[in-house]
Amino acid sequence: MERIMLPNGTVTTGTSVSYTATENGTLTFYGLTRGGNVLAIQSYVVANIDREEKDVLIVPGDEKWRNEDIEVKINVAD
After folding, report:
1. What is the pLDDT of residue 78?
2. CA distance from start to end of the chain
């Protein structure tokens, strides 16, 4: 394998590549020969990207400066 085709169609040279998933779905990578023949196919399912804003309550939320340790409580609603 001398080239790798990324899920977005970009072909790279070499045997190692880094790819950033920006949305959920199946990502398929193809290992290619120099002539463009497919040697290997590997797919990965990404299902943990969540871009929905969450309802978060942070206590204390007053943004006051303090000269002491303070406990912060964070509650997230689904």
Report:
1. 61
2. 45
d(CA 22, CA 55): 22
Q: What is the pTM of this model?
A: 0.62
Give the pLDDT of residue 20: 92
Give yes or no for a contact between 9 and 29, defined as CB atoms under 8 angstroms apart. no
Q: Give a three-class secondary structure readout of the chain.
A: CCEEECCCCCEEECCCCCCCCCCCEEEEEEEECCCCCEEEEEEEEECCCCCCCCEEEEECCCCCCCCCCCCCEEEEEC
Q: Which residue has the tokens 């590997």?
A: 42
